[in-house]
Design brief:
By secondary structure, the chain is of the alpha/beta class. The chain has one domain: Rossmann fold. It contains ten helices and twelve strands. The strands form three sheets. An eight-stranded mixed β-sheet has the order 3-4-6-5-8-9-11-12, with helices on both faces. Helix 3 packs across helix 4. The N and C termini lie far apart (36 Å).
């Protein structure tokens, strides 16, 4: 199942960074996150649980985007409305720059779906709502294809699986800028132009933590994981779970019009679509988006 292995250049630096960084994120969210280590076919997988003392509450499992952490979802307590009614599991995807092992499967196979099913089994989750941003949306749909009975409904936020990564010059420039020259100035420019926009601005403290994360992984992480792809029509039409799609109208990585068109054409169980104005790719930091997610969960 393991096809690629990504890694931090210095494991001790990785551990020291995340020990400090996670605590700082918790200070912005006002929540403590219990860190769980579970064994999967991709190695150790780290999951952060929130409000796990509500056994009868609705379960929400979150999968993050590429080169991000699931804790991005809780900057400035954006998950606050969901914590009131859900127990939440924030999964640190293997093969991404986090405390999970760096092993990853072939992106076009069912490896990530089988891995996600293992996460459910290890956490004793029989059925849950799942949500994924960008790359996490692909993981969600892979799980639906492998084990649809585990999924009550799936919420996709600016998913990276309904169309190819945009090759527009503007998008390529802002995405490649911090990769080619990972200074804090260039990272901030990328975030301001491609990730964060007017309707989901972070506090200054959280933005600094986001820059800290990107600077650390861009300079210290060797990324071998295969990139997300546009899932084929014959894959998408096999999804039998209810799907809800949230997209931002300022997303330059995956322009929303094409994602909407693909979803409406091939996701036969598409139950709702939402276009968020003045929202860029980092939709998981949007309070408006989380309010919509809360409404979807309550249906």
């Amino acid at each position: 199942m393991i096809k690629k292995v990504s890694y931090f250049k210095d494991e001790n630096q990785r551990n020291a960074f995340f020990e400090k960084w996670v605590g700082q994120v918790e200070s912005t969210s006002g929540s403590e996150h219990e860190m769980l280590n579970i064994a999967t076919s991709l190695g150790n997988t780290v999951v952060y649980s929130v409000e796990n003392n509500k056994p009868d509450a609705q379960t929400l499992v979150i999968f993050p985007g590429f080169r991000t952490s699931s804790l991005f979802w809780d900057f400035d307590n954006v998950l606050g409305p969901l914590k009131e009614t859900c127990r939440i599991f924030l999964v640190e995807t293997n093969g991404q720059p986090n405390l999970s092992d760096g092993n990853s499967p072939g992106i076009k196979g069912d490896g990530y779906g089988r891995w996600a099913a293992e996460v459910f089994e290890q956490l004793s989750i029989k059925r849950a709502i799942i949500a994924g941003a960008s790359f996490g949306g692909l993981v969600c749909l892979k799980l639906c294809l492998v084990a649809s009975s585990l999924v009550e409904k799936v919420i996709l936020l600016n998913p990276g699986c309904l169309q190819p990564f945009s090759m527009s010059l503007r998008n390529l420039y802002y995405n490649l800028l911090p990769i080619m020259s990972p200074s804090r100035k260039n990272i901030e420019k990328f975030l301001d132009k491609a990730v964060i926009s007017n309707d989901h601005m972070l506090t200054n403290r959280s933005k600094e933590l986001l820059i800290d994360f990107e600077e650390f992984v861009l300079t210290g992480y060797v990324d071998k994981t295969e990139k997300p792809y546009a899932m084929r029509a014959d894959e998408l039409t096999k999804i039998t779970n209810d799907v809800y799609l949230l997209v931002g109208d300022k997303d330059i990585l995956f322009p929303y019009e094409k994602s909407l068109a693909t979803a409406q054409r091939h996701l036969l169980m598409l139950r709702g679509t939402y276009v968020l104005p003045n929202t860029a790719h980092g939709i998981e930091t949007s309070r408006k988006a989380m309010m919509i997610v809360r409404d979807i969960i309550g249906r």
